[in-house]
Amino acid sequence: MYVLKRQMEAVAYALRMDPLLDARQEKRVRVRLNELYEYGKRIGYLKDYEVDVQGAKYAKVDRLHQNIAKFKAMRKAPYQM
User: Fold this and answer.
1) What is the pLDDT at residue 81?
2) How confident is the model at residue 36, as a pLDDT?
3) Which of 4, 42, 48, 61 satisfies CB 3.0 to 4.6 Å to 65 for a cystine?
4) What does the buried/exposed string (b/e) look like for 62-76 if buried means 16 or more CB atoms within 10 Å of the residue's CB?
5) Is this prediction's pTM over 0.85?
6) Phi, psi of 69 (to 5 degrees)
7) Rounded to 5, what percent of the chain is helix, strand, coil?
8) Which residues, 6 or more positions from 3, have their beta carbon under 8 angstroms from its beta carbon?
9) Region 22-38: what's the mean pLDDT?
10) pLDDT class of 77 with cuts at 50, 70, 90
């Protein structure tokens, strides 16, 4: 299992939630990220996730437990248009 540890802000910027962060709407960002994590878990890309876990370098991080089998199957799939 591969575990990805990132700050909430880093994930939000990667998902283009800049306007919410710039407007200091952290609660809305957290709700939206939790919805997206649940969706990722439901479709099989995430095995589990943890939010606001105490990190070593940063104050709080999100831990995403990725489903390696799903990503490997996606790599092996033939290209279709």
Assistant:
1) 60
2) 94
3) 48
4) bebebbeeeeeeeee
5) no
6) -60, -40
7) 45, 25, 25
8) 63, 64, 65, 66
9) 92
10) low
